[in-house]
Amino acid sequence: MEEKKTVQTEVEKPRDRAVLAGLSSPRLDKRDNADEDTLEELGALVETAGGEVAAVVLQNRAAPEPRTFIGEGKVAEIRELVRNEEATMVIFDNDLSPSQMRVLTQELGVQVLDRSGLILDIFAQRARTREGRLQVELAQYQYLLPRLTGMWTHLERQAGTSGKGPIGSKGPGETQLETDRRHIHRKIDKLKAELEEVRRVRGTQRQRRMKNEIPVVAIVGYTNAGKSTLLNALTGAGIPANDRLFDTLDTTTRLLAVSDTLEVVISDTVGFIRKLPHQLVDAFKATLEELEYADMLLHVIDISNPEWQEQARIVEDLIRELGAEKTPCLRVYNKSDLFWGDIRPHGEDTVNISAKTGEGLPELLRAIDRTLDKGTRRVTIHLPYDKAGLLDVLYRDARVESVDYAATIDVVATCNPRALGLVKTYVEGWTEPKEPWEE
């Protein structure tokens, strides 16, 4: 009997049981509305956060109710559900105002979170690097600031104007609130300064890469589209790739040999999601600014997901918001082995792959090579000794693989067009490349 008890205690209990609630109203913006799909995604977010879904409530209403958002009748229904299901929290798919959150917490008797608060909690759990933690902390403070009002209800008894407070409490009634506001503003300023330093360091690293003329490829896509699995498949990066939302938060960067003439720096970025809190879009600029400086984007799309078209649209909207819409973009349709349709997406700047099985990866590498090809060639050069000065040029402007001193100085190097223009007379088997109209 005792052995059984031991086994049961080892089973990890969920952090929370949550009732999910959402409002659909013609008065709300389309992207702010809740529906069955967004609530299903909210359920996946709850599981990612370590909780479990106890019940789901979707309310259709002509307009949000200013005080409780969903109306008194629905509040009573959810309160009953919380009691019957022994739920520990209620999570709304819509964003709530600070006053609505306060009222609902009082009415329902359990913690109330909105979608943004839940995503911030997941980010706080997942961030690993100093940069990631700074970004999450900044986003949390920006989220918390407007929600401070009303968190200090215990001060009502101490308000200086009432005359009933204890000795020493006379004075402005909101002193504690104002102190907290100032404290949070100071924290936000400090975090922004630290993130600026992170950006400066990243900028220095980026300049070094640009000087070395190594192109940057950024992997973007909806959360759980398979970005980390793809990076692992291409580079053997060994990043945990799990079937859950927001598994990657910190940018992972690796060097990838695309072909014998092209090496790129390839970066995995945080997954995008519908209704991504604005604080996060702003705070994660330090991670996502890789997009702005990337020479190419790989937009990974989970083709096995029935919602893939909507998810792809959300990612493209965010790419525009981040100012990277002019960067060459290759649509990479992942999980093709699980695709349920008859005809796979096809056309220019489109590749179908399965990062898990390896299907389509050679085609993907060829497509990257084609897009980033700047006329770089791997050549053998026979330099006369009186032209030995050109060797310095090659060391500076090309990637030199080997140098042999024989009848001539024999160099194997990967050269960009500028270097080739200087040494082409001595390149083994050199023929001038034809213009497209000459072919």
Could you state the order of secondary-structure elements as H and E? Answer: HEHEHEHEHHHEHEEHHEHEEHEHEEH
Number of helices: 14
Based on CA inertia axes, which overall geometry fits?
elongated
How many beta-strand segments?
A: 13
Assembly state here? single chain
As a whole number of angstroms, the C-alpha radius of gyration is 28 Å
Structure write-up:
The chain is α/β, with parallel strands linked by helices and 439 residues long. Helix 2 packs parallel to helix 5, helix 6 runs antiparallel to helix 7 and helix 13 (389-397) packs antiparallel against helix 14. The protein has helices spanning 2-10, 36-48, 72-85, 98-108, 115-126, 130-144, 175-211, 227-235, 278-283, 285-293, 308-321, 361-372, 389-397, 417-423, and strands at residues 17-24, 52-60, 89-92, 111-114, 216-221, 252-259, 262-268, 296-302, 329-334, 350-352, 377-383, 398-405, 409-415. Helices cover 40% and strands 19% of the residues. A 6-stranded mixed beta sheet has the order 6-7-5-8-9-10, sandwiched between helices.
